[in-house]
Amino acid sequence: MVPTSPRRPGVASNPLEWLTRSSGTWLPPLLGTGGFLLLWQILSSAGVIALPAPSSLFTEERTRTLILYPFYDRGGLDKGLFWQTMASLSRVAQGYTLAALVGIAVGITIGLKPTINRAFDPLFQFLRMVAPLAWVPIALVLFQKNQPAAIFVIFITAIWPILINTAEGVRQIPQDYRNVALVLQMSSRRFFTKVLIPSALPYIFTGLRISIGLAWLAIIAAEIVMPGTLGIGFFIWDAYQQNYVGEIVLGVIWIGAIGLVLDRLMAWLQTRISPGQ
Amino acid sequence: MTTTTAPSLVDVRAIDKSFALKGGGTYLALQGIDLEIRKGEFISLIGHSGCGKSTLLNMIAGLDLPTEGTVLLDGEAVKRPGPDKMVVFQNYSLLPWLTVRENIALAVDEVMGKISSSERDALVQEHIDMVGLGPAATKLPLQLSGGMRQRVAIARALAIRPKLLLLDEPFGALDALTRGNLQEKLMQICNEHELTAVMVTHDVDEAVLLSDRIVMLTNGPGSNIGGILEVDIPRPRQRLEVVHHPSYYSLRSEIIYFLNRQKRVKQWRARPHQVVARHGLEKVNLDLGFLPLAASAPLAVAEAHGLFTKHGLDEVQLIREPTWRGIVDGLVDGTLDASVMPAGMPTWMTAGGHGGAPLPIVTALTLSRNGNGITLGRRLAEQGVHTVDDYRAYLKSHEREPHTMGIVHEASMHNLLLRYWLAANGIDPDKDVHLQALPPAQMLADLKDGSIDGYCVGAPWLDRAIRDGHGIAVAGDLAIWPGHPGKVLGVREDWAITYPNTHIALTKALLEACRYCADPAHWGELSELLSDRRYLGIKPELIRFSEASTDVDRGGPESESAVPHHLFFGEGLNRPSRTEHLWMMTQMARWGEIPLPRNWVEILERVCQVGVFSTAARELGLDAISYQRQGIELFDGKPFNADDPIGYLNAQTIKRDFSIAEIPLAPPRRS
């Protein structure tokens, strides 16, 4: 957005002026975040809480190395944060893609067929309530290996919002659109591509956006209890085991940042694919 | 349109439609619908919301299937929707993710698969241009106004060349200006492409403007076709010009009457209707019909002064109808228990004058006499027409123009007096002029704009035109037949037999009210009372009961006799008179309204409930007024011989070819 002043147009070219006038947008979040960090710093320095102060992330050598060299690779699990993140993200990508494919397909089916919906809805509602962590033991028993088990945990966590939203989106296709398809005697294939998918797309995307957050949450939980896997989750757990509190804090900040980026990415995709709906 | 020989394209045969209700059971929405639609015809379905008109349209479209019966399109049963019967939906139903062109192309590609893609593109472009949306072709529906979206929907429907175009309240959500433009556009397209179309609407003017026939649906449950109107306005029609066509107003008022009637029936159904018996009366909850006229004063007085309650009728409700036709229908379908009616109506309905089976109506009380007069418009007065002789000469010299005079109802004294007066003065009331039934309240407007020459009507509509300077009085009823019967109380004969004590109580209450109305000391109060919205809803100074108010601005020496001079009560005034009813029957036969009943003695015996009147008068201690009136002689001095009505009719020079027939009446019985 280009801010303009109705009284003095042309002033917008001056960056300082622009900063002053748009201060309402950037000042409150800056003050809020800054205030929080400051409070944390004070509390830590005063010894009220056991966590290291934010400044220590830069003063301490281990964490400073991690921040400054995200791409280092010393073999085994001793790798930079970038590689840790990539490992986690690749699992998320696999599990999430699977969840999206299955979720959208099943969602459309139960959205179109009320009988199938009635048959499976209780089961879905039940499974939906099981926490990601509870799935880990079952996944490990099922697959015997860490990697597929982790992917399964992501899949099973991420699928529900996609499935339920897709089904709702299909059910919410206005009767008018269906009537148009009926009157034109559209084939099912054409109905699917020309009416059903475009109409349900906003709902599907809402589901996808909720799920990406859940998938990211689940991967951390899964990795923490799966020893010996490369990933940001196990990185934190490992740091805890070795009592590197600074690393834990850094890992947590990193997770939050990545989650935020993923969510924004989906939001952006949503506006690109179904504009104005 | 003269398409009587055209084959029918759509044949709706004996359709019933019921829906399953949530709590079990079914709701019968439509019942026994039969409708044939000819090729090239434009049909409107009109009715109140919930009457099932959209359901009927959906069944023609194949979007819904009838529970019973079939819909045939070109001789084939409609089993599923298809592009040959394309629908334009109320909310446009455009796909919002497609542009205008893509929306139309989607339909064309889907349906016109056989032609080449360049031909399809040309077809799409042709229809975009047809509805004038060229510049907006690449826009999304959300970027368009409602009117433009509906144009897209119409273009999409027409582009696939349907045999039948179905429109479900297509313009319902649009503003008036856009609606008008689109109506013209649609009309033009329909004419050019000779389309067959069925449109659901609730807009009366839209229906008249667009349709060849208007199908009126009654209210549910079990809606059916209440009537079909042929619109005889020639095409091409212009929105602003059709309103001047002579049929326009009558078609419009016909539909409005129908819709109002449906509403009235619905309201009636919504109330409980168990017969409430109390105080030794068989029924104390009554619906009494009346029209907003000064002659309805006794009903208003009886209600306002608690006279109904005094005689045990605790739950009387007054139902105001705009036209006498509403009263007739109310008595026929039983939604009214009793009503004020023109004096001629009991014999008219008993003889089947209303068009249905003869329905015996009885009267035990004459509510009012006099109060009528004949008014001519100022347009005529300005050309020197001040007397009936002037008018006769005027008619002669303006022979080629249509001359219409307004009456309220063919069975009212206004009609009979006006005809008698015209005929006695050498003017044939059917050949030299045309008499048209109009609601009283509308006559003034018609007189003002000159679409009628004059009218014969009762107070307060009579002297209003004179006071406002829009007309002059040429003859008051005192100069034609002083003391003629005006309004009577009428009930169905089966009702009177079923509730005899109620009938007497009602007669007593109204007779007492008549006595109250007759006292000049009460006239000021009566004007105030009748001016209430529940009754007449006009200013009290416009409702006058005597010539005491001799306004100087009435103008003309004749106006003296035109002042309303209602008689509500007195010796021989209220007792139903067989002679008078015979005179009215004879006059109605003279003008061909009814045949002269060969069994006229039986009819008079049954219509005039003198016994009920006498009982009521005696119980009120008013035996004195039971005196019977003597023979009838009008202003022309020709006596009426009650023993020989046929001889009297034969002696008239101006008359129609009247017929004499036995009126088949069922023996008197309970309802």
Describe this structure in words.
- The complex is a heterodimer of chains A (277) and B (671).
- By secondary structure, chain A is mainly α.
- Helix content of chain A is 77%, strand content 0%.
- Chain B is of the alpha/beta class and 671 residues long.
- Helix content of chain B is 37%, strand content 20%.
- Chain B contains 25 helices and 24 strands.
- In chain B, the strands form six sheets. Chain B has a six-stranded mixed sheet, sandwiched between helices. In chain B, strands 12-11-13-20-14 form a five-stranded mixed sheet, sandwiched between helices.
- The longest helix of chain B has 25 residues, at 246-270.
- The model of chain B is unreliable at 548-563 (pLDDT under 50).
- At the A-B interface, helix 9 and helix 10 of A face strand 6 and helix 2 of B.
Keywords:
heterodimer; A: 277 residues; mainly alpha; 12 helices; disordered N terminus; B: 671 residues; alpha/beta; five-stranded mixed sheet; 25 helices; 37% helix; elongated
Topology overview:
The complex is a heterodimer of chains A (277) and B (671).
Chain A: H1 15-21, H2 23-45, H3 56-59, H4 61-68, H5 81-112, H6 114-128, H7 132-143, H8 146-171, H9 175-183, H10 188-224, H11 232-241, H12 245-273
Chain B: E1 8-20, E2 26-38, E3 42-46, H1 53-61, E4 68-73, E5 76-77, E6 85-88, H2 100-111, H3 117-130, H4 146-159, E7 164-168, H5 176-193, E8 196-201, H6 204-210, E9 213-217, E10 225-230, H7 246-270, E11 285-290, H8 297-304, H9 307-310, E12 315-320, H10 324-332, E13 338-342, H11 345-350, E14 361-369, E15 372-377, H12 378-382, H13 388-397, E16 404-407, H14 413-424, E17 434-437, H15 440-448, E18 454-458, H16 461-467, E19 471-476, H17 477-480, E20 485-492, H18 493-498, H19 500-518, H20 523-530, H21 559-562, H22 578-590, E21 596-597, H23 600-607, H24 610-619, E22 632-633, E23 639-640, H25 645-651, E24 660-661
Parallel strand pairs in B: 3-8, 3-9, 6-7, 7-8, 11-12, 11-13, 16-17, 16-18, 21-24
Antiparallel strand pairs in B: 1-2, 1-4, 4-5, 9-10, 13-20, 14-20, 15-18, 15-19, 22-23
